[in-house]
UniProtKB/TrEMBL annotation:
Superkingdom of origin organism: Eukaryota
Identification of the protein by name: Fibronectin type-III domain-containing protein
InterPro entries reported in the protein's UniProt record: FN3_dom, FN3_sf, Ig-like_fold
PANTHER family named in the record: FIBRONECTIN TYPE III DOMAIN-CONTAINING PROTEIN 7, FIBRONECTIN TYPE-III DOMAIN-CONTAINING PROTEIN
Gene3D superfamilies: Immunoglobulins
Domain Fibronectin type-III: 57-143, 230-316, 401-490
One Pfam short name: fn3
CDD domains: FN3 (cd00063)
Length: 491
């Protein structure tokens, strides 16, 4: 039998040596005694002892969450004590955290993110733990979104951001910041976001946080770069005679490499790559009109093409060269077919001893004066665009008319009426024709490849005029200086 301070009596019966008294009030002092009975009479009370029931559970339990420190402050109503209260937080996986205090509050740190905690408190006097308070519930700080990824749209420059949905999150905050710490903030309830293009070539930091009604999570962070900026200030310079074009440009923000391309009218393409601001296009074909542009490249994207530059490659060598020699004045007339990209042409004749003559024109032919007699010339023509000169055309070899014969001498044999004529041979192999002309116009002649010949059937007492000229396969040279011979006399 247990008697409380308020006179309330609780009892239990047993045939054995013990029994349990139930429904005692908490935090109450009871006097306990035992009597025996034979169902007819009761004995007197045993020695009386005093006991105190377990402390009542703390009341008005509250929690508050410090989001930044990731800790919970648990408070309750209860008398301050030299002994302690213990607050317990149990997560959904039965993980347990606790704190103790002799006052009416304590803090639990290192909470797991994204948990719904069950919170209880009870008192412990060193002998008997008190009753556990009625449980309350508290959400911890939301977990930062996991698996944050970015996908850059290289064409538009925009970026798609996505992440794993978080339990207990009511929404998400996405913060985009550039290298100058300029920030843009977006709110969404879905685990994804599309951001329009901001600045080409710029690197951005993305921080994604989830939130509930009490807290914002710690951020999950990734970086991304927009597509490189379009290259600018591009120039293209051809290297004369080398089939090479040097391409330069201004560096583009965000670029790791560059690629230059030249496309001609037929779609043929030349390319070169560089991690700097220039590269060299090889294999440039003469007589073409190239459209040249540059793109910047990073690990993911290619920029827009630069504004194209048009470049005319150097002219091709003229073709179908012909040369005709005027035997009368030792001039030559050249003609050829047009060369693409040419603005003018230069013809040149060079002899074996280095003598050269040239003529220039904007047309498809020119007249060449001042050639030397009896000389073999190699004729070529080249084209120019005003900056570069083409290679020479295929050569044509022509020989001018033979030079006048020199050192003509005559010997008259009056006995046989025969005249022997001799001269100094020229440097080229030609035929020679000697002519003896009488006053009445009668002409006698002899032809030879040697340096002398004879003319017969002359009449004595006549005044003859003697000339010699050289004859090539293409031209007759001029006659030598005439000499006068009187038959019957030796000159």
């Amino acid at each position: 039998m247990a008697k409380g301070d308020d006179g309330t009596v609780h009892s239990c019966n047993s045939l054995g040596m013990a029994c349990v008294i139930r429904s005692l009030k908490c935090s109450t002092n009871y006097t306990v005694s035992v009597i025996s009975s034979n169902f007819m009479c009761n004995s007197s009370e045993s020695e009386v002892i005093s006991i105190e029931t377990a402390y009542c559970p703390p009341e008005n339990l509250t929690t508050s969450l410090d989001c930044a420190a990731n800790e919970a402050l648990i408070s309750w109503q209860g008398a301050p004590s030299l002994n302690s209260y213990t607050a317990t937080m149990t997560d959904t996986g039965d993980g347990l955290l606790s704190c103790s205090s002799t006052k009416q509050s304590c803090k639990v740190s290192n909470l797991k993110c994204g948990q719904l905690y069950t919170v209880t408190v009870r008192y412990h006097d060193g002998n008997c733990p008190g009753l556990t308070s009625k449980a309350i519930y508290m959400h911890s700080v939301p977990c930062g979104p996991a698996n944050v990824t970015t996908s850059v749209d290289c064409a538009s420059g925009g970026v798609n951001v996505s992440w794993g949905a978080q339990r207990n999150a009511e929404g998400y905050i996405t913060m985009i910041s550039d290298s100058n710490q300029q920030k843009t903030v977006y709110n969404t309830t879905e685990p994804q976001l599309s951001i329009p293009s901001k600045n080409c070539g710029q690197e951005y930091t993305v921080k994604v946080m989830s939130f509930n009604r009490s807290c914002v999570s710690f951020p999950s962070q990734v970086k991304f770069k927009e597509a490189p900026c379009q290259p600018t200030n591009m120039t293209a310079t051809k290297n004369c005679g080398q089939n090479i074009v040097e391409v330069t440009w201004q560096a583009s923000l965000g670029a790791k490499n560059y690629s230059a391309a030249a496309i001609d009218g037929s779609g043929q393409r030349l390319e070169c790559a560089s991690n700097g601001t220039s590269c060299r296009l090889s294999g440039v074909v003469c007589g073409r009109n190239y459209s040249i542009s540059v793109v910047a490249v990073d690990d993911m994207c290619t920029s827009k093409r630069s504004l194209p530059v048009q470049l005319l490659s150097e002219p091709c060598s003229p073709s179908e060269l012909t040369a005709s020699v005027n035997c009368t004045n030792n001039s030559a007339k050249l003609s050829w077919s047009s060369s693409l990209n040419a603005v003018s042409y230069t013809g040149i004749a060079v002899s074996s001893d280095g003598h050269n003559v040239s003529c220039s024109t904007q047309g498809l032919g020119c007249q060449m004066e001042g050639l030397r007699c009896g000389t073999s010339y190699t004729f070529t023509v080249s084209a120019t665009d005003g900056g570069c000169q083409s290679l020479n055309s295929k050569s044509v070899i022509k020989t001018t008319a033979p030079c006048p014969v020199q050192s003509v001498s005559n010997t008259l044999n009056c006995t046989t009426n025969t005249m022997s004529i001799s001269w100094s041979p020229g440097s080229m192999p030609v035929n020679y024709s000697a002519t003896v002309l009488s006053p009445n116009g009668t002409a006698l002649s002899c032809t030879t490849e040697a340096s002398s010949c004879s003319v017969g059937t002359l009449q004595c007492g006549q005044r003859y005029t003697v000339t010699v000229k050289a004859v090539s396969s293409t031209c007759e040279g001029p006659s030598s200086v005439p000499t006068i011979v009187n038959s019957g006399e030796r000159l």
